[in-house]
Amino acid sequence: MTHPLSPSLQQGLPGRAIGRLPSGATSRPAGTSSAGDRFQAALAMLHTGHGDAMAAADALVQDHPSFAGGHCLRWALLVMAARDGAMADLARALRAGRTVRNADARARRHFDAAAAWLARDLRGALDAYGAIVADHPDDTLALRVAQFGDLQWGRTESLRSRVAAVLPHWNPDMPGYGHVLGMYAFGLAEMGDAVRAEQVGRSALACTPGNAAAIHAVAHAFEMQGRAADGIAWLKQTAAQWTVSSYAIHLWWHLALFHLDLGDVGMALSILDGRIRANPDADAATLVDASSLLWRLQLLGIDTAGRWQTVADAWTARPLDGLRPFNDTHAMLAFVGAHRPGSAATLMTQLRASATRTRDLGRAVYQAALPVCAALIRFGRGDYNGAADRLLRHRRLTERCGGSHAQCDLLHLTLLESALRSGQADLSRELSRERVHLRPHSRLNAQLVTRARGVAQSLLAA
């Protein structure tokens, strides 16, 4: 098979592929070929975003209860659900898999990692999945869970380094190689290496056609450079592959951001209303995207009409359990945007209570989520000085709430808008210039620099 990467890029990957791993360490678990094939198909659903991996895992466990891979997949998916409502299901799944736990050494490690999560030992669970990856570089299930944890709980450096460490053990002939490249592309984008992220992401898609995760990684590469027109072209070009995937709503969100950067507010609103529907049945990821897009529109002075009320209603109907501070922060956006101080106060109380339940999550909540939410409340009250002060003091910690740079950029935009509205000329100039340096092609950033100059000129004229 021809290597999908150019020679120059191939040399840029960490290490070089050393060929297939020994047969006893391949990514296909021991078991019947039927069970193994079904496991690989379900795993591909998880990696590419096509199909229902949980339904496939449930059916696999039911049909092959002694097959360890199906249990490991189900445990991992329930861990990645990362909500209180999934804990009872995880407990049942672990009980159902106790017999296979002792039959397979790697399954035992997957069991222990998921059990740590059930015990709310966040660090222990993620470290356990990471240790599996370190010892079994071909275990893309453990790698996916570990990278998910890195993203959700602010381990940005590991998004790249964890995948980089396994790549030398892979080659293009191995099943799942395109999935690993897709994860690596995302890590590169998050660490600011947008050029290589685009190249590796395109290669991942060429290696595994339909890989919506790879399409998503390339979209991030364009976002990180402010290349909105290229991002729109990319998502249109690949639309047939991602619009039917589990990444669809989130990639519609990315498309809306690209249009916003170009000043096409109408298209962004059209995507919000037609594609990112924040109805009562919407999942948390959809509500996050809806809240984020609405807040960005509000920062631009766009009339969002009654849309905030719908999103706030949907958040109110969901339990906010503190397991995902990133989600809780976006719920606060909706409560502030909808002018619901009671809901905002209740969420602050819930966050303080959740911070006492686990040490690791408590740190993220106290150091990032609570200060950010307090700043958002001040912004909603029109206390832009107070909002700017709080966001500025905690701006280097906001990523601990979780989420990608593209998602966390919302807080940086809010900080800059707070500085602009409170007439802080020096801070506005510094923040807007920083944005242009990081995303030199962004039209929105150029407009923010112009606004910052206007603040300075107004102060001089006063």
Automatic annotation (TrEMBL):
Alphabetical keyword list: Repeat, TPR repeat
Family annotation (SUPFAM superfamilies): TPR-like
Keyword Ribosomal protein: no
Ranges of biased composition (kind: Polar residues): 1-11, 24-34
InterPro entries per record: TPR-like_helical_dom_sf, TTC38
Region (Disordered): 1-34
Keyword Oxidoreductase set for record: no
Highest taxon of the lineage: Bacteria
Family from the record: Belongs to the TTC38 family.
Protein's UniProt name: Tetratricopeptide repeat protein 38
